[in-house]
Amino acid sequence: KRHSSERVEISPDKVQSELGNFSEIYGIKKYDKQCFDLVILDPLTNRIEIRLDTSSNVSSDERRAGFFQIQQQFQKLVTKLIAAEYKLENPINLFPAIDKLYRSKEGRICELAFTTETGSIKHEKMRRRHECLRGEAYHQGGSAAVDGNLATYKIAATWECIIVATLVTQPELLLPGYARMLSHSSSTLDNVIISNCIGIYDYNFVIGKLNSFL
Fold first, then answer.
1. Residue 142, Cβ density class (10 Å: 0-12 exposed, 13-18 middle, ≥19 buried)
2. pLDDT tens digits along 19-32
3. Mean pLDDT score of the chain
4. What are phi and psi of 77, to 5 degrees?
5. Contact 50/71 with Cβ under 8 angstroms?
6. Is 70 exceeded by the pLDDT of residue 73?
7. What integer is the mean pLDDT of 107-130?
8. 49 or 33: whose pLDDT is higher?
9. Is 173 left (phi over 0), alpha (psi -120 to 50) or beta?
10. Spatial separation of the C-alpha atoms in residues 58 and 18, rounded to whole Å
11. Inter-CA distances, 144 with 92, 147, 157, Å
């Protein structure tokens, strides 16, 4: 069970007499949510993977708190089993995968954030469900203007995953980097967000795509 919070809109009519004449009012609603988190030990890649059960309305701070909670509990469990202090160390830096994914032909890029040599910061999203940002006219024109010298720091991509002949899903992978990571060689991106999955098959499909860029 995890404590969560959500930003919700409140009808001004309900509280206008107490708060005055506001056109928009928002509040933070706190609640408990039953989550199903996993710690995966993968002998093929020799990695330990923390899978946090979360949603799009959860803040980055709450996600970090959730990861920390799972990590602490896992370390306590292993410490007890091996009778020696154990800590999860050396997280894999996922940041280099952002530019590799963008430069590849994999997936349909639906979101991209980058900086240019002229110092500008761009954040693009593709609203059309079946089109890729790489081929969008505005993006191609801007990229050509700077000879393709884009420093990418955030990317989202989707793939069509065939579950059965009559069911095709479009799971999404988001690598949520920040612009400041470009100027610090020691910056590490140690988490991704995978969404729009209906089961373990399409989830593992996306994990396989991510691993191909590491």
1. middle
2. 666 777 778 888 88
3. 89
4. -65, -45
5. yes
6. yes
7. 90
8. 49
9. beta
10. 30
11. 32, 5, 22
Phi, psi values for residue 203, rounded to 5°:
-65, -50
Closest CA to 110 of 95, 96, 131: 131
Q: List strand residue ranges (DSSP E) for the chain, in order.
A: 2-10, 25-33, 38-42, 47-51, 108-116, 121-125, 150-158, 161-164, 167-169, 172-175, 193-195
Structure-block tokens of residue 190: 């140690």
% residues pLDDT > 90 (the chain): 60
Q: Is 136 exposed, middle or buried (0-12, 13-18, 19+ CB in 10 A)?
A: middle
> In the numeric block, which tokens belong to residue 90?
């050396």
Amino acid at site 71: Q
For 74, residues 6+ apart whose C-beta sits below 8 A from its C-beta are: 39, 50, 88
Confidence tier at 165 by pLDDT (50, 70, 90): confident
Query: Six-digit token pair at 170?
Result: 């479009």
